[in-house]
Write a structure and sequence with these properties.
Blueprint: H1 2-20, E1 31-35, E2 38-41, H2 42-55, H3 62-82, E3 84-97, E4 102-116, H4 122-127, E5 133-147
Antiparallel strand pairs: 1-2, 3-4, 4-5
Helix pairs in contact: 2-3
Length: 156
């Protein structure tokens, strides 16, 4: 009887952990703006805000997030209307020491531009649910490694 009670308690505990605990987590995604047939969601705005804060080296605080909401929303609207994007890639130079192999550094930066060309061809752009873009960009990956010399002694 004791074994049956323990199994029942375990089953109820397992149900509570698996079902009830998961009910508390949800993703809130609402439509923030509708531009033509395209939507800008609250998650799009959040991602744009965080991207802007990181690019401008600002701390991610509630005050900075609130200050950047209008800029992020306007930026997303502009991207949808003009169907153009400017890409910026940057990884600061990271110096490392690989122990007995040597030491070095790695860094990356780049820029790019993307523009939708189907908006200029009305019959094709409206007839097919697809996007065709031209993209140009430049990325520079800078690496440096200093290998320690290895001395091999040979006895002949």
């Amino acid at each position: 009887m004791r074994k049956v009670n323990l199994i029942i308690i375990f089953v109820f505990y397992l149900l509570e952990v698996l079902i009830i605990s998961n009910l508390h987590s949800k993703i809130i995604n609402e439509i923030a703006v509708k531009v033509g047939n395209s939507l800008i969601t609250s998650i799009d705005v959040q991602n744009e805000i965080i991207t802007n804060l990181i690019i401008t080296n600002q701390e991610i605080t509630q005050k900075n997030v609130n200050n950047n909401k209008n800029f992020a929303t306007k930026s997303l609207i502009y991207k949808l209307i003009k169907k153009s994007e400017i890409d910026i890639r940057y990884v600061p130079t990271y110096k490392y020491n690989a122990g007995f192999v040597g030491k070095g550094s790695i860094g990356l930066w780049g820029v790019g531009f993307k523009h939708d060309i189907l908006q200029w061809i009305p019959l094709v752009g409206d007839a097919f649910p697809m996007s065709l873009s031209l993209q140009a960009g430049h990325t520079s990956l800078n690496t440096d490694i200093e290998i320690k010399s290895q001395v091999v002694a040979q006895n002949l």
